[in-house]
Design a protein that fits this description.
Helix content: 25-40%
Number of strands: 14
CATH topology of the largest domain: Uridine Diphospho-n-acetylenolpyruvylglucosamine Reductase, domain 3
Number of domains: 3
Distance between the termini: 48 Å
Bound molecules: flavin-adenine dinucleotide
Strand order of the largest sheet: 4-5-10-6-7
Number of helices: 10
Largest sheet: 5 strands, antiparallel
Structural class: alpha+beta
């Protein structure tokens, strides 16, 4: 199938891109890697009158690692971030999650910021972003707005970005002492969207006792659910925790929907098993 007709804009700079977005408003869509948007257009599940292709906007393809954050520009491809050793060291959960995102050809073109703007609850990076407490940096002709992750996802494929806003970068906090993480999932083939995925983040005290245990889930809700699972295990030595009990508690708290890939019960079962595995791997 072919997309409905649209007007194609290819701004050469950020100000021009923001001007076009302000003019076209809700009739426009930003085009980044196109790996999610183009299938939607081709299937006519979306038919914006204007596409604003940001691929020629300079300065958006930069990964910066500061003492506080990993900052990733809107044109950084998944594969660039996956292979960026500085970013992987500064916040290892990013690389661990990106290993599960799609297939190499899609990662070569798709952008990590685009994946977050797309707000698909079956995608890994939105879940990781909420778990880490990331911040999306948006620009419009009115200036800059910083959107905390917990305010970013409104529903499936729905973010709180305004139509006139361009996400210019995503920031995630760097790893802190005592922080351990893992990302595990079940998908029909490696690189497919997960039937269920779990990102786990453990914070340990200097003596090895658990300070906090939180997990975010992929394909388990309309937006990525995050569970605080530390209450029953805080203060225990990390080697002594029975993570199967923690997994069972997580499964009880989740309320996934069934679809053609899996029933709700099977997803809940997977969430329990994968929560245990994720924390054991993090440990
Ligand atoms: C076969 C296949 C398998 C896949 N498997 C997975 C998977 O397992 N896990 C996973 O996470 N993803 C998967 N993806 C999606 C992939 O990760 C996409 O790259 C990503 O979801 C979107 O990034 P993009 O740059 O291609 O965005 P686009 O397709 O260009 O845009 C997606 C949406 O975000 C908006 N947008 C993009 N950038 C911006 C911006 N800077 N500011 C404002 N709005 C913006 C667009 O307007 C559009 O609404 C898969 C895709 C395919 C085709």
């Amino acid at each position: 199938m072919k997309p409905a007709p649209f007007t194609y804009h290819r701004p050469a700079g950020l100000d021009e891109a923001l001007d076009v977005l302000a003019q076209v408003g809700a009739d426009g869509k930003v085009l980044a890697g196109g790996q999610s948007l183009l299938p939607l257009l081709s299937m006519r599940l979306a038919s914006p009158a204007h596409l604003v292709d940001i691929n020629r906007v300079p300065g958006l393809d930069v990964v910066e690692v500061t003492p506080d954050v990993v900052r990733v520009g809107a044109l950084v491809r998944h594969s660039d971030l996956l292979h960026h050793s500085g970013a992987r060291t500064a916040q290892p959960m990013l690389g661990r999650a990106l290993e599960h995102v799609a297939h190499a050809t899609i990662r070569n073109r798709g952008t990590t910021v685009g994946s977050i703007c797309h707000a698909d609850p079956a995608a890994e990076m939105p879940a990781v972003t909420v778990l880490l407490g990331g911040t999306l940096v948006a620009r419009s002709i009115q200036g800059e707005r910083r959107i905390p992750a917990e305010e970013l996802f409104a529903g499936p494929l729905e973010s709180t970005l305004r139509p006139d806003e361009l996400a210019v970068a995503m920031e995630w906090p760097v790893v802190v002492p005592g922080e351990l993480s893992a990302v595990v999932e079940v998908s029909r083939r490696h690189g497919d969207y997960a039937v269920c995925g779990v990102a786990a983040r453990l914070l340990l005290e200097p003596d090895g006792a658990v300070r906090s245990a939180r997990a975010a889930y992929v394909s388990m809700g309309l937006t990525p659910p995050v569970l605080d699972l530390g209450e029953s295990v805080a203060g225990q030595r990390v080697q002594d925790v029975d993570w199967a009990v923690v997994g069972a508690a997580a499964a009880d708290q989740l309320d996934p929907e069934g679809d053609i890939h899996a029933s709700a019960d099977y997803r809940r079962h997977l969430a329990g098993v994968l929560t245990r595995r994720a924390f054991e791997e993090a440990r």
